[in-house]
């Protein structure tokens, strides 16, 4: 996938739908080239083509979200990867930025990665590191394992660090998610009391999603980009949440 493809995915997901003619103007190529790009991206399930336009698809698609704000998410993943030490077992929950983190760690022969995400497991099929995939009920939309069996597997598995995804944060609600069952998985991870990080770009802050994480087991460390506004940074710090900001300029 080339930089123009990333730009097209970003535009489509930001707008929801966008005309081929406008994509051609914004990317500086012909409409014929744009149509060829859209054919490839639709084949990879990253967008949908409709007459004369491109349309964003289901936001639960990890591949689509991984290519939205890609440079920022890659910078966050690289910073998170730098925190992983030799000999550690690391839990990676799921989501687009965590998928990039898994890819960044794939060639580390001195670590073990544990995940509930089948999407991430597929990314790691040729990895040098050891990979453990936990069981449970497959949630097809997110390609992730959920449910009581997944919670039990987490309880019975040891890891040194955990990286989880979140969909929103607000000072009144704390961290929230769009999916109840995935929030339950994150709660099970946080209940173990290991060193845990929410890995998310700054666009999620100020948003409130339907399902809050358990107030008894909150994330205490966040890795995000340097576009986080000063007021939100202060609110996070007032709630004793450590914020690691990554330069993305």
How does the SSE layout of this entry go?
Elements: H1 3-15, E1 17-19, H2 20-27, H3 31-43, E2 48-50, E3 53-55, H4 62-66, H5 70-81, E4 89-92, H6 96-105, E5 112-115, H7 118-123, E6 130-133, E7 137-139, E8 144-146, H8 148-155, E9 161-164, E10 168-170, E11 174-177, H9 180-190, E12 195-199, E13 211-212, E14 221-225, H10 230-238, E15 242-246
Parallel strand pairs: 4-5, 4-9, 5-6, 9-12, 12-14, 14-15
Antiparallel strand pairs: 1-3, 2-3, 7-8, 10-11, 11-13
What would you note in describing this structure?
InterPro entries: Carb_Metab_HTH_regulators, DeoR-like_C, DeoR_HTH, NagB/RpiA_transferase-like, Tscrpt_reg_HTH_DeoR_CS, WH-like_DNA-bd_sf, WH_DNA-bd_sf. The chain contains ten helices and 15 strands. It has about 250 residues and is an alpha/beta fold. The strands form four sheets. The protein has a seven-stranded parallel β-sheet, with helices on both faces. The longest helix has 13 residues, at about 5-15. It starts with a helix and ends with a strand.
Please state how the strands of the largest beta sheet are arranged side by side: 6-5-4-9-12-14-15
Tally the helices: 10
- Report the span from N to C terminus: 22 Å
**Residues in helix, %:** 25-40%
- The number of E-state strands comes to 15
């Amino acid at each position: 996938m080339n930089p123009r493809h990333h730009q097209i995915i970003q535009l489509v997901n930001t707008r929801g739908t966008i005309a081929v003619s406008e994509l051609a103007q914004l990317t500086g190529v012909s409409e014929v080239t744009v149509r060829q790009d859209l054919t490839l991206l639709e084949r990879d399930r990253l967008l949908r083509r409709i007459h004369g336009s491109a349309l964003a698809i289901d936001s639960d698609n990890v591949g689509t979200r991984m290519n939205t704000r890609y440079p920022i998410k890659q910078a966050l993943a690289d910073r998170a990867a730098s925190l992983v030490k030799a000999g550690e077992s690391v839990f990676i929950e799921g989501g687009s930025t965590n998928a990039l983190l898994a890819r960044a760690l794939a060639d580390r022969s001195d670590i073990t990665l544990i995940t509930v995400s089948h999407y991430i497991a597929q990314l790691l099929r040729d990895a040098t590191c050891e990979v453990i995939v936990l069981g449970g009920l497959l949630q097809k939309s997110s390609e992730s394992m959920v449910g009581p069996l997944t919670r039990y597997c987490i309880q019975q598995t040891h890891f040194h660090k955990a990286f989880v995804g979140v969909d929103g944060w607000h000072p009144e609600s704390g961290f929230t998610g769009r999916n109840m069952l995935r929030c339950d998985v994150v709660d099970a991870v946080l209940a173990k009391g290991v060193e845990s990080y929410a890995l998310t770009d700054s666009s999620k802050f100020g948003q409130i999603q339907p399902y809050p994480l358990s107030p008894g087991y909150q994330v205490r460390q966040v890795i995000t980009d340097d576009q986080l506004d000063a007021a939100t940074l202060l609110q996070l710090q007032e709630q004793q949440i450590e914020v690691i900001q990554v330069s993305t300029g």
